Every structure is written in C-alpha cells, then in structure tokens.
C-alpha cells in the first residue's frame, strides 16, 4: 500500500489529457459503425456466417498458441494465413458478388453512376394482362413465375431460356405456364411491353423462406436479391399469388395488391432524384402491407 501511495503522490496528473473527438472523427466513427453493422447483418443472412465463425475460431486458436508458445501450431496457422486472402476470395466469391450487386443497386450508387434505362415502362394494358393472367392461373392453381425487368438488366437470365419477343397478353402467359407444355418450367421475363423469353433459369436464394415454398418461390426471392425486378409467383399447390422484391416475399396478393404494384408505381429509373427513388420502395412496402395478407 505504501508503494501505491508513493506512486500516486509522485505521478503528475496534469499530463493526462482526455482525447478530443472532432466533427470529422465523429462522422468517421458513425460511418464505420454502420458499415460493420451492415456487414455483420449481411453475413448472418448467408451461408458465409458459418465460415466466418470458423475463421474467428482459427484466429482465437492462433492467439492462444502464441501466448502458450505452441510453436508447431503457430507455424501451421501462420503459413495458412499467408494464403488466407486468396482463399477467402475463392471461398466467399458468391457472397462477395452478391454484396457488390446489392451495393450497385443502392440509390446512392445510381445517383453517382446513372443506370441506363433497359426499356419502356410497363403500359397499363400490359400490366392489366399480367394481372389477369396471374388471377386466372391462381384460380386454376397453375404454377407461374413472371419476372418484370426494371433498371437492372436480366440479359444473363434471358439467354438461359427460349426467345419469344412477343406482345404481352393474358392468353399467351396462361398458355406458357400450362402444365406439361415445353415452356412451363422456369420464368417468363418481361422487358418493356414484350415477353422476351420463357423457361428461364433464375437465381435461387440461400436463405430460409419456409418449407412450404418450392423452387419457384426460392428462385423469385433469389432473383430479387440481385436485381430490382418485380417478380410475381403463383403457387401450383395453393394457387396463392406472391410478390418478391429486394429479397422479401409478400404473400397472398389479390387484384388490388397487384394493381398497386404494377399500375400505381413507376420504376425508380423513371423518377427524378434520390429521395423519390427511395420513396418508390417505401410506397410499395407500405401499400402491399395494407393487403389481406398483412
């Protein structure tokens, strides 16, 4: 106790200074906090979460081996880390691509680097044809998968199907998805006011959406995660209509809900300004949650 008392008596507390946080530092802290939070939230929704935990465990083992002087284990881990960056790029390639695609879809990214318009907006007649076809197929319990292109091009998916380049009619859409016909399996892609391709293979989501949903719904959610398309799915088992947007699945839609989505909202590429682009997605979420399925 005497030594401790002597220390406090001789210590010059005048040299202590509390760190000052300026405006720039505060902004930097907020940005980094947000980035880390979004990164953790994104990783938790992907299969990368298990890999991330494995990497964190290896890191803890390496720290323990250093302090416990486990030389052989430290040598193995240090040599593994020497190629770790390349290994991470290879292991996380799908997740990294997905993350970059989501960043590119952000409204701020579109403001900095404008997205070229991929076609005309869906006309009221074409929207009505899609709505009628969806409702008719719902009544008949005919499975359907309709993808309406917005600002992100669907060219890579279009090439996996059969080219049609046909006008949009409810009769054509219903005939395409009749069971056992050559084009019924897969998605129909609509660009502008044309059905450009049918029987297209789309991206499957890796997240859990419920055991009651099949491949169509998983592909709808997966495609909505990497594009800004409006995606309508009709269940073959129940006849219920669902809508996928930005990785979310909105279920049990009716005519009013489809009209709100396809008739009463413009594509973000048609709107002027950053805030209106955000408002478009907020309006969709607000409107469709007013439906009978909310």
Helix content: 40-55%
Trace the largest sheet across and list its strands. Answer: 2-4-3-1-5-6-7
Supply the number of helical segments.
Answer: 13
Give the structural class: alpha+beta
The average pLDDT value, as a whole number, equals 76
- Distance between the terminal alpha carbons, to the nearest Å? 67 Å
Which outline best applies? elongated
Which regions contain 5 or more consecutive residues with pLDDT less than 50? Answer: 266-294
Order of helices and strands: HHHHHHHHEHEHEEHEEEHH
Radius of gyration over alpha carbons?
26 Å
Sum this structure up briefly:
By secondary structure, the protein is α+β, with helices and mostly antiparallel strands. About 50% of the residues lie in helices and about 10% in strands.
Protein topology:
Elements: H1 2-10, H2 23-44, H3 48-67, H4 71-82, H5 84-91, H6 93-105, H7 107-112, H8 124-140, E1 144-148, H9 155-158, E2 162-167, H10 170-176, E3 187-191, E4 194-200, H11 215-226, E5 230-234, E6 241-245, E7 248-250, H12 255-262, H13 274-288
Helix pairs in contact: 3-4, 8-10, 8-12
Structure overview:
Helix content is 52%, strand content 12%. The protein has helices spanning 2-10, 23-44, 48-67, 71-82, 84-91, 93-105, 107-112, 124-140, 155-158, 170-176, 215-226, 255-262, 274-288, and strands spanning 144-148, 162-167, 187-191, 194-200, 230-234, 241-245, 248-250. Strands 2-4-3-1-5-6-7 form a seven-stranded mixed sheet, with helices on both faces. Helix 3 packs across helix 4 (71-82) and helix 8 (124-140) packs across helix 10 (170-176). It is elongated. The protein starts with a helix and ends in a 6-residue tail after the last helix. The relative contact order is 0.09.
């Amino acid at each position: 106790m005497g030594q401790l008392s002597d220390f406090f008596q001789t210590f010059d507390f005048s040299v202590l200074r509390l760190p000052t946080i300026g405006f720039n530092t505060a902004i930097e802290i907020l940005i980094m906090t947000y980035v880390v939070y979004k990164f953790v939230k994104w990783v938790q929704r992907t299969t990368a979460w298990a890999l991330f935990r494995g990497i964190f465990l290896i890191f803890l083992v390496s720290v323990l081996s250093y302090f416990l002087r486990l030389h052989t284990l430290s040598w193995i881990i240090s040599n593994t880390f020497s190629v770790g960056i390349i290994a991470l790029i290879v292991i996380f390639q799908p997740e990294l691509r997905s993350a970059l695609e989501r960043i590119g879809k952000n409204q701020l990214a579109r403001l900095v680097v404008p997205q070229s318009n991929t076609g005309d907006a869906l006309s009221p007649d074409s929207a009505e044809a899609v709505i009628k076809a969806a409702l008719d197929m719902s009544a008949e319990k005919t499975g359907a998968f309709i993808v309406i292109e917005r600002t992100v091009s669907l060219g890579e998916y279009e090439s996996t199907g059969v080219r049609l380049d046909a006008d949009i009619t409810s009769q054509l859409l219903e005939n395409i998805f009749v069971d056992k016909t050559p084009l019924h399996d897969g998605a129909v892609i609509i660009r502008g006011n044309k059905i450009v391709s049918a029987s297209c293979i789309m991206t499957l989501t890796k997240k859990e959406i419920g055991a009651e949903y099949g491949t169509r719904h998983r592909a709808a959610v997966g495609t909505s995660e990497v594009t800004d398309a409006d995606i309508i799915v009709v269940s073959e088992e129940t006849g219920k209509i669902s809508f996928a947007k930005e990785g979310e699945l909105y279920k049990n839609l009716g005519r009013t809900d489809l009209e709100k989505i396809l008739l009463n909202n413009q594509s973000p590429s048609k709107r002027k300004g950053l805030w209106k682009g955000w408002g478009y997605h907020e309006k969709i979420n607000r409107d469709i949650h007013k439906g009978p399925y909310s």
